[in-house]
Amino acid sequence: MSDDKPDPKSIPQSFRDAWLSVLGVFTSAEHEVHKRILEAFDLPEGAHLGTELLARMRKNREEFERRVDEGVKTAIAKVRAPIDKELATLKTRVERLQARIEEQKRARAEKKKTQAKPE
């Protein structure tokens, strides 16, 4: 046999070895990426990344919703403050007018009583 010709058994073995090397590189890189993500999110080493990220996303969404609600309430309160003040002023004016009307009704009733009495 000549050395120029590769051994047929060594080609699949070489391919297998190369494939395992590639998988090893990817596995190592994946582990490194996973480790860096855990560090970035300040998670413990054994944490299940998907569960942790979903829990944090849920917590952040709830916090965001709470802040939006507070912002909307604050904005509404700022818009309503002048309206509430004007309503209070109008209510006071209506109450004063009501009191004057009642006073005039009483005065007319008294006047009618005095005019109706014979002397």
List the helices and strands and how they pair.
Layout: H1 10-40, H2 49-116
Overview of this structure, please?
The protein has 119 residues and is mainly alpha-helical. The protein is 83% helix and 0% strand. It contains two helices and no strands. The longest helix is centred in the C-terminal third of the chain and has 68 residues, at 49-116. The mean pLDDT is 82.
What labels would you give this structure?
2 helices; 83% helix; rod-shaped; mainly alpha; 119 residues; single chain
Care to give the gist of this entry?
The chain is mostly helical and 119 residues long. It contains two helices and no strands.
| SS field, number of helical segments | 2
Give the termini separation. Answer: 156 Å
Biggest pleated sheet? none
Rounded mean pLDDT score: 82
Oligomer: single chain
Class based on secondary structure composition and strand pairing: mainly alpha
Task: Give the topology string: H per helix, E per strand.
Answer: HH
Helix coverage percent: over 70%
Q: Poorly predicted ranges (pLDDT <50, ≥5 residues)?
A: none
Radius of gyration: 43 Å
Number of beta strands: 0
Strand content: under 5%
Name the shape in a single word.
Answer: rod-shaped
